[in-house]
Structures are given as C-alpha cells and as structure tokens.
Amino acid sequence: MKIKWSILWVLICTPIFLGNPLYAQEKQEEEVSFEMNLSKEKLGINERLRVEFTMNKDGDNFNPPSFDGFKVVMGPSQSISSSWVNGKRSFSKTYSYILVPTARGRFSIKQATIEISGETYKTLPKTVEVTAAVDKPNDQKTVDDVADESLHLVAEVSDGSPYLNEAVTVTYKLYVGHSIRVTNYRSLDNPTYNNFWSQEIDVSKPKPKNTTYNGKPYLSVVLKKVVLYPQKSGKLDIEPLALEIYVDVPTNRRDFFGGRIYTQTTKTVSAGRRTLSVKALPEAGKPANFGGAVGDFDFKVTTSKQTLNASESLQAKVEVSGKGNLKLFQLPEPELPSALEVYEPEFDEKVRTISTGMEGRVANNYTIVPSYRGKYPIPSISFSYFNPKTSKYVTVNSEEINIEVLEGPLSSSGTESAVTTNKQFVVPTGKQFHFIKLNANLTKIGTNYFFGSNTFYLLLFAPLILIPIAVFSFKKREAIASDVVGNRIKQANRLARKYLSTAKKELGNKEAFYVALEKGLHNYLKAKLKIETSEFSKEKIMQILSDKNVDGTDIEGFISLLQNCEMARYSPFSDVQMQNDYAKASEVISKLDKQL
Predict the structure, then answer these.
(1) Cα→Cα distances 430→300, 427, 550, Å
(2) Which of 175, 153, 150, 169 lies closest to 240, judged by CA?
(3) Half-sphere exposure of 432 (CA within 13 A, CB side)
(4) 270 touches 215 (CB < 8 A)
(5) Rounded to a whole number, what is the largest CA-CA distance in the chain?
(6) pLDDT given for residue 106 in this prediction
(7) Disulfide check for 95: which of 53, 216, 217, 285 has CB 3.0–4.6 Å away?
(8) Phi, psi of 10 (to 5 degrees)
(9) According to the model, what pLDDT value does residue 31 have?
(10) How confident is the model at residue 476, as a pLDDT?
C-alpha cells in the first residue's frame, strides 16, 4: 500500500518540477557580457577619468589596455557583487582604474580581454576627448587623497582692465598645505597667450613663504611670472596653466622612532581661465603723429657734433627711454635738409623686461655726411605717447639743432646755407671724398716656393693621418652614447659623490645637510641597483637589498640613515649627530659596495 502511494506522489509532482525553470537547468544558460564603462567621454586635463570593466560571470587572466595618453593613479581595484532575487542568481565583477590625462587631444582606450569558461571575451574600444583645464573639475577622488585639499594653483593678475598695450603681470602661485610636501612638478599645458605680446620673467629658486589662503594657513611659492601686453581691445582670455605636482602625503602609519610615514602621489592642478577687459585708447585728444607708444617716456634728439668740415660725418640719435611698450612702436623720423647725405639708421636697443613691464631705451642712429659748406638746421621732432596712469596723451618736442659746415665746396647756387627741410635719403654718388689708405705697408715676398716644401707635404698627408683618428673617435663616442645603462650609472655615481660632498659642506646646517645626504643615498641606490626614484620606499629598498644577499646589519644601517633624514625635518639634531650620520653614511656605502 505504501508503494502505491509513493508511485502516485511521484506521478503528481513530476510535471510540477519539470515545469519549474529552477530545475530545468536554470531555464537556459545566461549570455556572457563583458563591457567597459567610462565616467565621462570628455574631460579637462585637470580632471580624472574612472574606467570600469564589468562582467556578469567570473573569469580569469584579465588583461587591461595600455591607456595611451593617460597615467594610472589608482587601480586596478576589484569589486564583486552576488545576490539572489526571486530565486534567480545575479553576479557582477568589476575592475576599476582611476586615470589622469597627460596631454590634450583625442585618445582611444583600446580593448581589454578576459577568459570566461575557456573562451576569450573583449570589450569595445572607446574614444575620450581631453580639453583644456576646467575651472571646477568634477573628478573622482581617491579615498585618502589629502593633496586635493592641500594644493591650489592661482593666477594673480596685476590689472584686470588694462589699456591697449599696457603691461599686465600674471603671477602663478602654488599654495601648499602644511600637512604635505611637494617634491617636484612639471607643466602639462602651458598657456599660449593669444592676442598678447608676452615675455616670461625668470623666477629664481622658489622660496616658500607663510601665508593664508581662504582663511587657512598655507605655504606659498611663485612658480612662474609672465608680462603681457594686450594687442587688441575687448574681452581677452588667458588660458589656464596646468601642472602635475608630485607630493608626499602623510599616512596613518608610524616608523620605528614614531615619525609619520609618507607616501608619494601626484595631483594635477590648474590656475583657471582668466579674462581681461582691455580698454581701447581714447580717441579724444589723440595726436595726429601718435604711433602706439603706451607708458611713461622721455624723448630727445642729439648729435655727436655740431661743427665739422665737408665730407666729414656726424651721428644723429633719435632716442626714447622710460617704461612701457618700448618694442612695440616705431620711432619718429627726422626731417633733414636735402643737401645732407643721410644713411639708413642703425637701430639700437637696450630693453629689459621686469615684473612691472619693459624698461630701458630704444634709438635710431643716423649717419650724416654734408657735401657743401653752410649751415643746416635739424628741425624739432615731436613724439607722442599715451600715459595709462593719467589716461592722457603726452607730446614731447625735441630742440632744434643747427649743423655748421666750416670748410668745403660751395653749392651750385653759391649760397652758404641750405635750409630746405624736405626729407631725402641720399645714396653716395662716388664723387665725394673717401678714406683711402695711401701707405699700404707692403712687404716683399721671399724666394721660397710653397710646392715641394715641408709645409706642402705636411698639408698633403695630414688628412690621411687625421681620417682614421676621426673614425676611431666617432665610433668610440657612438659606443659610449649607446650604453644607456652605463651612462645612467655614471651619472648617478657622479650625483651621489656630489650630494655627499654637499652634505659635508653643509655640516651644521641641519635642513640643507639632511636634504643633501638623502639625495646622495638615493642616487647611490640608483647607480647600484638600477631602480628609479618612484621605487624609493623603505620596504622596496629592504626587499631588493635582501634579494642581493646584503647583510641585515648593513640594511638596517642604510634604512636608519633614511629615517634620520626624514626625522630631521621635524626634530632638533645636534652637530655631533650630523657628523655621526655623515660618517655612518660613508661606512654603510663602503660596505654595500663590497657586497653589491
């Protein structure tokens, strides 16, 4: 009886189980998907891009693309989610990267690959456009990226509404929070300064200063200064400056002595786009001879002599000096009597550009040669400029100069003066007096012949000797140049010796001594282990030295020197301690040399 009821129960339940998708091999195999998702397809050079590779089934041997045009600052980070909803399983696995662009342009993020269930799947490539830096970047931030709140690049403009051709100084300042340290920086995108005449001012070694930014204490340093002269009126944009900053950010870890351990990261900062409202020069009161000079100037016309004889020469100088756009206007030309030979002027410039603009002088030097006896007046010349401080035009007139020729032939008219003032540049006709040397100081040629002499044979066979020497020297230089690794090692050795010698000179100056000592130790490692500066972490150094079978005591001595260099920034160190550290550095390097 029990067997009958069991058979009946199986016959009743079998259709139900067969109709349920959970028992019919979960309905059908779910289709595999492997996709690439971008946080944005257009971003500024100071923004970040998040790239995610997502799959709905677990896979192996994930191979990301090369990310040409970008730098990976975080990743890959992996996340997995799995859930059951209404009896159906949902799975998702994601590889994430945070990228920063290295240049402007259009870049293609190529295919990524992964193996799922024995088959290879690929994502579709996607194009990303990188534009100029934006004012308010909306980018993904890392979890503990303190540098985002501690770095600010600001473009300070001396005058937001200058006149046309008036100097404007743009100063780029970097504000750094006290919690981080800047180790280096490089330009990603320099402004082009369209519609401006520009001149960059040399900035000496940056010197940090204590200041405040948005009400908080910061260190500020001037990285760049540019003097601009707007060449047209209206709204003119100054493109932003973008920099990649290398910073050391504190972590929550402590070293053996209790000092905070730092980690290195990078951040892209932008000064932001600035717009100038350039005012046109006023038309009211503009002189007819105004040539575009803007600033505060002095003007004069001088001559090297005022009395001379015919066929002698004199120099007439038209000079403008002062502060303003000295390189951006034409000097006025004198109106000279037609009886004077006037040669094309020679331009003389002595101008320097400082943070407030150009200053100095520019001049045209005219060579004048009178042909006849008489008196020749050089009329007054007027020069006009616009003074932006007073917003007025100024006209300066030179004094009239009289040139008297004492001796020489009379003109064809028989008069002793020529007062016509029509300007005429005369080309010499060949009938004037010229300076001809009569005593040539010639010497008699000897009777010795060149051909067949010792000098002749020396010059004849010299190329045969020099060519092999030149070929050997060229091959030697080529071999040296091709040895890239060797050249890097030699350079690092030289730098190590340089910084250790610098450290010795700075004994007694704590900060300079330990900075030089730390650089010397780093460059020694670069020479011996062929590793880059980006790999200089204590854990990495200890691992590499251990792999090289370096004695543990020597490794600890080297690491303790690096820790002393870090602690010296925050703790007082005596001269005795500095002397001991220098001696210890020499001893440790000597021991490492023997083992490496």
Answers:
(1) 33, 9, 88
(2) 153
(3) 18
(4) no
(5) 160
(6) 92
(7) 53
(8) -65, -40
(9) 85
(10) 78
| pLDDT at residue 161, rounded to an integer | 95
Q: Tell me how many domains the chain contains.
A: 4
Q: How far apart are CA 438 and CA 425, in angstroms?
A: 30
| Integer Cα distance of 436 and 480 in angstroms | 57
Q: Which two tokens stand for residue 14?
A: 């079998």
Range of the domain at 362: 295-405
pLDDT of 383 reads 95
What is the rounded distance in angstroms from the CA atom of residue 388 to the CA atom of residue 59?
Answer: 71
569 and 490 in one domain? yes
Beta bridge partners of 181: 248
Question: Are both 117 and 38 inside the same structural domain?
Answer: yes
Low-confidence residues of the chain: pLDDT under 50: 1-4, 7, 10, 12, 14-28, 140-144, 414-433, 492
Whether residues 112 and 180 fall in one domain = no
In the listed set 278, 309, 341, which residue is the last one of a domain according to the structure? Answer: 278
Contact 267, 147 (CB under 8 A): yes
Query: Whose CA is closest to 224, among 198, 197, 196, 204?
Result: 204
DSSP 163: B
* pTM greater than the 0.85 cutoff: no
Cβ contacts of 210 within 8 Å, gap of 6 or more: 217, 218, 219
Distance (Å, rounded) from C-alpha 390 to C-alpha 294?
A: 11
Task: Please tell me the distance from the alpha carbon of residue 426 to that of residue 448, in angstroms, as a whole number.
Answer: 50
One domain, residues 117 and 237: no
Return the amino acid letter for 430.
G
Instruction: Express each pLDDT in 346-388 by its tens digit.
Output: 999 999 999 889 999 999 999 998 888 888 888 999 999 999 9
- The residues pairing with 352 across neighbouring beta strands, listed in sequence order, are 359
CATH of the domain at 373: 2.60.40.740
Distance CA 318, CA 297 (A): 13
**Is the distance from CB of 121 to CB of 238 less than 8 angstroms?**
no
What single-letter DSSP state applies at residue 180? -
DSSP string, 39-83: S-SEEETTS-EEEEEEESS--EEEE----TTEEEEEEEEEEEEEE
Long-range CB pairs of 536-543 (<8 Å, 24+ gap) are 537/263, 538/255, 538/562, 538/563
- Whose tokens are 């948005």? That residue is 214
> Which of 67, 243, 51, 256 is closest to 147 using CA atoms?
243
| pLDDT value, residue 283 | 93
Under 8 Å between Cβ of 90 and 84 = yes
Beta strand 401-405 with 374-378 is antiparallel
Do both 92 and 159 map to the same domain?
Answer: no
Residues 122 and 155 reside in one and the same domain: no
Same domain, 247 and 320: no
Specify the pLDDT at position 435. Answer: 52
> What is the predicted pLDDT for the residue at 80?
67
Domain of 502, CATH number, reads: 1.20.120.330
State the pLDDT at residue 473: 83
Question: What pairing do the DSSP bridges indicate for beta strands 216-230 and 196-201?
Answer: antiparallel
What token pair was written down for 364? 């045209």
Closest CA to 164 of 278, 43, 275: 278
